[in-house]
């Protein structure tokens, strides 16, 4: 704030020689809001002297408004997220009610088949109702949003005009920040530089995007989304920002939303490898393993050495009980990055399913050497020991895994099984 007190602004009245001393905060005032002592002498703002403040107060005011508007944006974003969540629950409900495989049908008893049939015969009616209702609600919602946009009256403002030299300064700073981000993995330092670039040009899209991307790399996914959204306000079709948003949503375990944004990136650039991979991985996390493999393959067509896609394919094959194939694809990922713990875990777990315990243990050890706190490797080491009836040892690793993620039900169950086995010995 001290810096602000030194700031000197000339009075906007061209006939005055003095600097601005005060600011008028009266709601209905129509005069120049910044004014000097000479202005006071000619009677400006005298009718509402209770709303006059010294110049430094202006800077407190703008930072307060910035914070309040950020808070508002966060709150309304959360409201939209709630709508999105409900919407995805609805979609999930439609899927589980009306979509059934031949095999699932054959597994039902006659009463269940009857009930499924009578529900599905009424599908058309349900379809009409839901479509009409949603169309009406969305139209009303859009109309209201458009009205609010109009009230913002953005076209009347010209404070967005940025001087050429400020644009150049922001470009230079961005280049410095990008090197820190890309070459040196120094994300915090990079963010500081991007902030400086944005002080010169608050709409510098690449700085907005790369700040989001750096936040994502730091695991600050919520903030990353806020900044990716700011970049998207400059250009709705900025592929990298769409991808950063998709990736961050995946980091927050919001897989359905992640796919929506990956699809938007793919509409702009259908061969964007990262977006293809993000979509594949989100599908895998939703348990749609066959679909996940289809999208991982698309990513691998663009870049056959894309490590995350190789891993997604391997892990999906493992979940489909295709252990030998899973090992082949995990090995391909490990050729690209020998320290990829998730791939080591996938390979180790597949070997375990194939009862090749010695090899499995070796691979898992490798993973734990790289990252002693790798959750999946810890729990699978437990299972591997458990399979070999080394119950006490297994217990140690179940506990280590549960220390990292105490809510993992499957590992909790395994631990209980293990305790029972020890009691019955
Ligand atoms: Zn004046
Ligand atoms: Zn006034």
Automatic annotation (TrEMBL):
Residues 131-158 form a coiled coil. TPR repeats lie at residues 171-204, 341-374, 375-408. Pfam families: ANAPC3, TPR_8. The keyword Transport does not apply. SMART domains: TPR (SM00028). The keyword Coiled coil applies. PROSITE patterns: TPR (PS50005). Keywords: Coiled coil, Repeat, TPR repeat. It comes from the Eukaryota. PANTHER family: CELLULOSE SYNTHASE OPERON PROTEIN C, TPR REPEAT-CONTAINING PROTEIN MJ0798. This is Tetratricopeptide repeat protein. The lineage of its organism: Eukaryota, Sar, Alveolata, Ciliophora, Intramacronucleata.
């Amino acid at each position: 704030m001290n810096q602000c007190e030194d700031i000197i602004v000339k009075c906007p009245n061209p006939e005055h020689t003095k600097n601005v001393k005060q600011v008028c905060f009266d709601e209905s005032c129509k005069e120049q809001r910044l004014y000097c002592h000479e202005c006071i002498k000619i009677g400006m703002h005298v009718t509402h002297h209770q709303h006059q403040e010294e110049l430094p107060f202006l800077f407190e005011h703008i930072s307060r408004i910035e914070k309040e508007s950020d808070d508002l944006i966060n709150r309304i974003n959360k409201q939209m997220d709630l709508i999105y969540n409900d919407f995805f629950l609805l979609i999930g409900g439609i899927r589980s009610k009306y979509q059934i495989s031949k095999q699932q049908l054959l597994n039902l008893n006659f009463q269940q088949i009857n009930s499924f049939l009578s529900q599905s015969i009424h599908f058309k009616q349900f379809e009409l109702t839901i479509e009409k209702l949603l169309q009406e609600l969305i139209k009303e919602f859009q109309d209201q949003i458009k009205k609010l946009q109009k009230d913002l009256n953005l076209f009347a403002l010209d404070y967005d005009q940025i001087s050429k030299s400020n644009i150049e300064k922001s470009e230079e700073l961005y280049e410095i920040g990008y090197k820190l981000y890309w070459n040196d993995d120094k994300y915090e330092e990079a963010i500081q530089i991007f902030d400086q670039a944005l002080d010169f040009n608050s709409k510098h899209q690449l700085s907005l995007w790369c700040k989001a991307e750096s936040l994502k790399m730091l695991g600050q996914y919520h903030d990353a989304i806020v900044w990716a959204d700011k970049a998207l306000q400059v250009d709705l079709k900025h592929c990298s920002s769409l991808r950063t948003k998709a990736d961050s949503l995946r980091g927050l375990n919001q897989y359905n939303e992640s796919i929506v944004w990956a699809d938007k990136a793919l509409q702009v650039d259908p061969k964007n490898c990262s977006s293809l991979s993000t979509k594949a991985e989100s599908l895998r996390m939703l348990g749609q393993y066959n679909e996940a493999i289809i999208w991982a393959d698309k990513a691998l067509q663009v870049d056959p050495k894309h490590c995350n896609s190789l891993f997604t394919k391997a892990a999906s094959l493992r979940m489909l009980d295709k252990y030998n194939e899973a090992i082949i694809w995990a090995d391909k990922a490990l050729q690209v990055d020998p320290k990829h713990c998730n791939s080591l875990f996938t390979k180790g777990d597949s070997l375990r399913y194939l009862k090749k315990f010695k090899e499995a243990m070796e691979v898992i050890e490798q993973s734990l050497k790289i990252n002693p706190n790798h959750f999946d490797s810890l729990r699978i080491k437990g299972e591997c020991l458990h399979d070999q009836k080394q119950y006490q040892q297994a217990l140690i690793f179940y506990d280590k895994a549960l220390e990292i993620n105490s809510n993992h039900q499957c590992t909790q169950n395994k631990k209980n099984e293990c305790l029972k086995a020890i009691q019955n010995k």
